[in-house]
Structures are given as structure tokens and as C-alpha cells.
Amino acid sequence: MGLELYLDLLSQPCRALYIFARSNNIPFEFKRVQLVKGQHKTEEFRKVNVLMKVPALRDGSFTLAESIAILLYLAQKFKTPDHWYPSDLQKRARVDEYLSWQHTNIRAKGSKVFLTKVLLPLLTGQPLPTEKLEVAIEELNVVLKQFEEKFLQDKPFIAGSKISLADLVALVLSLSLQPVCAGYDLFEERPKLAEWRRRVEEAVGKQLFQEAHEGVMNIKSLTTDQFAPELLENFKQQLLKQ
């Protein structure tokens, strides 16, 4: 049995894994798990990841959850070029520093804008709560400033002169197209971020980047009848708490 990646490309972490594996010619079998249909809640998938979340990896009898852990596993098992996860101690520490910071900062705040503007009205049928969106955008602006000043600074990439896992995670998991799809172009008034985004996309290949994001670009075409009924109410309650 070869390497299997269980992914739904509507998910930010899944897109990061897909782009990393494809850009490094890592051979894998794409096992699609449709979140809106509740396929991550099945007993079959539970055998791969008892947490019942994507992404997940199966490599022979070995299984692994959590996107960052999977990225690091792939980088080391397939000996990808050193710039992805540098052997230099301090450069690697910069990558680790960003990967540790991003979960509850940029990723969380960027997702909140998307959830508030796109998914909440879709699933509840209620008008967009303007005050919630304003708060979400302000929170995102704070962490974007921190990202520029702390992590990017005046460097081409987070760890120096070449792309690393930190840049891929930053763009796909955190600063990706989901806020843009929600009608908020976070790059418009940030030329430094826009140039960094261009460099990251060129490093992995624009065509591959667009391919991975094709589904999320069409997210507004989703309708409530495409969701598994047992998940729909749960999603609504979670979003209302945002």
C-alpha cells in the first residue's frame, strides 16, 4: 500500500498539503473526503483518523493526523529540498516559530472573516451581521500587521531568501483566498504582502496554486441541500458563536 492523503480541498490545511506534495513530486493517492457530506464522520474514515478530521495520512500501516505534522513527515521522508525545512538550526527555528504562532492568529482571524461573511448567511439564511464582520476584519488587520513586522520584515520569504514550509502555510492556511473570496482583499493596500504572495505562488507554480484553490473560489455556489442534514444544524450553531 502506497502513501494515501485524505483531503478535501475546501479545507485550507488540505490545500497546503496538496500543493506541497504535488510541487515536490511526492507520489500519493488522493483520497477525497467531502466534509459537507459528513464523510469525515464515517466509521471507515475513523479507522484512518480517530479524530475524524482532515487532512490525514496513511503510509502503509502508519497513520498521521494534523497538517503541520504531516507536512514535516513528508518533507523529511521524501528528503525534499532543504529550503522547505532548513537543516540550518536558526532558519529551521524561524520556520518552527511561524508554524507555532499561526494557528490562533492569522489562520484563526482569516477564517473568521470567511465564516462570518460567506458561510454564516448561507447556513442561517439571515442577513450578514455587519457588526460581527467589522470586528472580524479589525482582528485580522491586527495580526496582518504583526505578520509583516515580525515574520516577513524586509525578507523575500519568512526564513530568508527561499520559500519554506512557513511561507506555504502562511499563504494557503492563513492568508489564502478565503478572505478574498469573502469580498475582502487583504492584499489591496499591502504592497509588501502582495509581492510576497507573488513570490510564493511563483515558487510553487501559479497553475498548481490555482488548481488547488478552484473549489474554494466557487464556494458561494454551495447550497444548504448539499450539506449532510445531521451536520447542518451543528455548523449553524458553531458559526453563530463566532
TrEMBL record:
InterPro entries on file: Glutathione-S-Trfase_C-like (IPR010987), Glutathione-S-Trfase_C_sf (IPR036282), Glutathione_S-Trfase (IPR040079), Glutathione_S-Trfase_N (IPR004045), GST_C (IPR004046), GST_C_Theta (IPR040077), GST_N_Theta (IPR040075), GST_Theta (IPR051369)
Pfam families listed in its UniProt record: GST_C, GST_N
Chief localization: cytoplasm
A GO cellular component entry from the record: cytoplasm
Record's catalysed reaction(s): RX + glutathione = an S-substituted glutathione + a halide anion + H(+)
Keyword terms, alphabetized: Cytoplasm, Transferase
Domain GST N-terminal: 1-82
Keyword check for Cytoplasm: yes
Location within or outside the cell: Cytoplasm
EC number: 2.5.1.18
Molecular-function annotations in GO: glutathione transferase activity
Swiss-Prot/TrEMBL GO biological process terms: glutathione metabolic process
Family annotation (Gene3D superfamilies): 1.20.1050.10, Glutaredoxin
SUPFAM superfamilies per record: GST C-terminal domain-like (SSF47616), Thioredoxin-like (SSF52833)
Self-association state and partner proteins as the record states: Homodimer.
Full protein name: glutathione transferase
Native species: Grallaria varia (variegated antpitta)
Gene behind this protein: Gstt1_1
